[in-house]
Amino acid sequence: MSTATPKVGFVSLGCPKATVDSERILTQLRLEGYEIVPTYEDADVVVVNTCGFIDSAKAESLDTIGEAIAENGKVIVTGCMGVSENAIRDVHPSVLAVTGPQQYEQVVNAVHEVIPPKKDHDPFVDLVPPQGIKLTPRHYAYLKISEGCNHSCSFCIIPSMRGKLVSRPVGDVLSEAQRLVKAGVKEILVISQDTSAYGV
């Protein structure tokens, strides 16, 4: 059995909500003993968290997937563009898995399929901070309070990608805010698709 630490490359595209999704996936991978590496060539697999909101974002996502395939060969795709799996596979048929937004467990399971976590991983050796892995500078952090939107605006694709509005329990939101403050965060940016509808 190999004793090498499994390594994951990660590219996060899109809005702050997608950034929070990336942070959640990265935190889970670190808890399981995966090392997050900054280059394609050092990774055993690459995860690309895509944006599918506007045409230029879709093009950037497809270009990034292609770059990761060319540089590494083993690519898992997630995020908003993942709801259009055929659009991704038509251009990049070799991607290993495609999942939509908020499908954290499916992404982690797809990573397991490519490179399983070390069986002898000790979580007390590779500690993850209580606030989790953050992709923002240390002085600020995003705090997502809800997911999705109940409106059906003709100009917006968000509900078809992110679903109907689901608010996080207020206790969970406050607990996360407290962890962020204890970690030294000075500015908490409250985000959601429809912040004014929180709790509906």
What's this entry about, in short?
Helix content is 34%, strand content 18%. By secondary structure, the chain is α/β, with parallel strands linked by helices.
Structure description:
This protein has 200 residues and is α/β, with parallel strands linked by helices. It folds into two domains: 7-114, Rossmann fold (3-Layer(aba) Sandwich); 140-191, Transcription Regulator spoIIAA. 34% of the residues lie in helices and 18% in strands. The chain has six helices and nine strands; from the N terminus they run βαββαβαβαββαβαβ. The chain has helices at 16-31, 55-71, 85-91, 104-114, 158-162, 170-182, and strands spanning 7-12, 35-37, 45-50, 75-79, 97-98, 140-144, 146-147, 166-167, 187-191. The strands form three sheets. It has a five-stranded parallel β-sheet, with helices on both faces. A two-stranded parallel ribbon has the order 6-9. Strands 7-8 form a two-stranded antiparallel ribbon. Strand 4, helix 3 (85-91) and strand 5 form a beta-alpha-beta unit. Helix 1 crosses helix 4. The radius of gyration is 17 Å and the shape is globular. The model has no long low-confidence stretch (mean pLDDT 93).
